[in-house]
Write a structure and sequence with these properties.
Oligomer: single chain
Structural class: alpha/beta
Number of helices: 13
Distance between the termini: 24 Å
Largest sheet: 5 strands, mixed
Number of strands: 10
Strand order of the largest sheet: 3-2-1-4-5
Shape: globular
Order of helices and strands: HEEEHEHEHEEEHHHHHHEHHEH
Length: 316
């Protein structure tokens, strides 16, 4: 989303933002929502609830999860909420999420951004490219001239290469291909069948297309690929290598558009916790001469005060 679209979310009668305010930062992922309450720039409370991303859950579930989050963080005297979420592609997306949050902070200035912006700020930089490898995937960046670029982040039906969902789906596809070739279930397929409470690979077809499973369900099965690769299962390692390469391709595209070579901040559940994916990502980028690659060392919501300090909305 552009700066112009974001600026439309700021109502004229809201107070000017400040890092000395009571501020709540919210990071809305495909699996969970993480919030931090800051007083005078210092984190004083932290909470985790279920996903409030309406691409993954319906509005009622999103509202309930936000209610849980704000109950733990405290409703009172909140001057500002800064929330990042996947799926914020247009001003209308941002307005819809703002409407969900407003009942829990009715007097606050609410700013909505794509969640990759939080990740870059949590890395302590204002320019560079942030890469999310979690339930979904996306790359977003900004250069010193304030120009922005984005790659991926189109959702699981159109992309999300290198994401948890992508890995879970690839595990299913791998198992079905082996079935078609007349092969017996190997270690990965057997682990997948056990996790899904199934007996035969052909049952994966119906389960995958059923109403009872979806993006989050299959993204959670990415761990099976990681565990199999760690145990020496070469096809699983190839999936992780491909995930790292696909994420690197998105990153290189964004960097090229911005005319910069870094830094690159890698985050998300997979990007932060899977060393073999990190290695494949770094190796692929190094072939393009991109070497300033950093792992995220704190949760994205902790980058919100950094964003607020730079926010044009708080300038006179």
């Amino acid at each position: 989303m552009t700066e112009t679209a974001e600026s439309r979310l700021i109502a004229a009668n809201h107070p000017v933002g400040s890092t000395t305010e009571t501020l709540i930062g919210v990071d809305i992922g495909g699996t969970k929502t993480h919030g931090v309450r800051f007083e005078n720039g210092v984190p004083v409370a932290e909470a985790v609830a279920g996903s409030a991303n309406v691409q993954n859950v319906n509005q009622e579930v999103a509202k309930a999860n936000l209610a849980d989050l704000f109950t733990e963080l405290g409703y009172g005297s909140v001057q500002r909420v800064y929330a990042g979420s996947g799926g914020i592609d247009t001003a209308a997306d941002a307005v819809a999420l703002e409407a969900l949050i407003t009942p829990f902070a009715p007097n606050a200035l609410i700013t909505i951004v794509h969640d990759s912006r939080l990740l870059l700020a949590a890395g302590g930089v204002s320019t560079g490219v942030a890469v999310i490898a979690g339930t979904g995937s996306a790359a977003w960046g900004r250069n010193p001239r304030g120009e922005e670029a984005r790659a991926g982040g189109w959702g699981y039906l159109l992309g999300d290469e290198g994401s948890g969902y992508w890995l879970g789906r690839e595990a299913v596809r791998y198992s079905l291909r082996r079935m078609n070739q007349g092969c017996e279930p190997d270690a990965l397929t057997q682990q997948l069948l056990t996790a899904c409470d199934l007996d035969q690979p052909d049952e994966l077809i119906g389960l995958f297309h059923s109403a009872g499973t979806g993006r989050r369900y299959w993204a959670q099965h990415a761990r099976l690929v990681v565990e199999a690769a760690d145990a020496g299962h070469r096809p699983s390692q190839k999936m992780l290598d491909q995930a790292g390469q696909d994420l690197a391709h998105m990153t290189a595209q964004a960097l090229s558009q911005l005319g910069i070579t870094g830094p690159v901040i890698l985050g998300g559940g997979l990007g932060t916790n899977v060393p073999s994916l990190q290695a494949a990502f770094r190796e692929a980028l190094s072939k393009d001469g991109i070497t300033d690659v950093r792992g995220l060392e704190q949760d994205p919501a902790f980058g919100v005060p950094y964003l607020v300090s730079e926010d044009p909305a708080r300038l006179p």
